[in-house]
Amino acid sequence: MGAFPQLTREKFHTWSVKSIPLYTLGVTQFLLLALADTRQLQLLHFWLLLGIYLAALLGNGLISTAVACDHRLHTPMYFFLLNLALLDLGCISTTLPKAMANALWHTRHISYAGCAAQVFLFVFLLSAEYSILTIMSYDRYVAICKPLHYGTLLGSRACATMAAAAWSTGVLNALLHTANTFSLPLCQGNAVDHFFCEIPQILKLSCSKSYLREVGVIVISALVFFGCFAFILFSYVQIFRAVLRMPSEQGRHKAFSTCLPHLAVVSLFLSTVVFAYLKPFSISSPSLDLVVSFLYSVVPP
Q: What is the pLDDT of residues 74-126, one digit of tens each?
């Protein structure tokens, strides 16, 4: 008996509390990162975020209205652009309104269910958005490299099927990550080091070693993301080869003007998402996480 340390009631209570998932302890809310310490700066952040949000609403709203109302824009490229605008509108509506409300009302709270809903919606919309960007690269590839088969390969039924697959993939990915993340035992309190609930920040609150399960799921998702990126890269290699063979300078300029912005958006989107989700915790900092997440969650594609 002397070889084993005595387990006191206090030690047993501490050990047992830390080994139980946080939601089973009656925790009903998380504390989000405050964007500023003083009231004046909080109000300044509120107006800044409100301006960004209204600009996103206006821009995506105009795109959606134009595509829906103008029959000349009822083409596959603009159909996928409409999907991208709706997804971006949903993505920014998932994060900014709560951040604005917290800045306005001088609070940091978000309910446990609200945090889980925010994670689910954010992962769903982000995954579907990336799938749409991948499909848009395929659209450009067919339009430039196989123009005679464009109507066959990208008919209305094929476009609807691909868009539905993109949205469905987002839902499944979000269900997997949300269920896995919020089933982890959390031992580091309830203060999220971010202005919205995000998986890497929730993992920081988890018990040691317990987060490895979700990290494994993230790595699998990252492999799928890299697979999509490889497909995009292959598509653009073929596109650039076809464009450079065009005899007309005006045709080359038109092709590049439709492809280069999409490629730039994909590169920025993928690099920031991968950095946010796969970087080691040792190089993480609130300011760095804030800038990176702002680039892929708030800045529209």
A: 999 999 999 999 999 999 999 999 999 988 888 888 999 999 999 999 999 98
* Residue whose token pair is 């987060």: 211
Which token pair is 286? Answer: 């609130």
Triad 258, 274, 168: Cα angle to 5°: 70
- Gap between the Cα atoms of 37 and 256, Å rounded: 46
**Selection from 11, 294, 297 nearest residue 129 by Cα:** 297
Task: Write out the H or E segment, with its range, that includes residue 37.
Answer: none
Cβ count near 82 (within 10 Å):
21
pTM over 0.85: no
Between CA 115 and CA 218, with CA 164 as vertex, the angle to 5 degrees is: 45
CA–CA dist 272, 267 (Å, integer): 9
User: Token pair 């964007």 is at which residue?
Assistant: 35
Closest CA to 176 of 129, 220, 132, 206: 220
User: How far apart (Å, rounded) are the C-alpha atoms in residues 124 and 141?
Assistant: 26
What sign does the CA torsion over 100, 105, 109, 115 have? Answer: negative
pLDDT digits (tens, 9 = 90+) for 256-282: 777 777 777 777 777 777 777 666 666
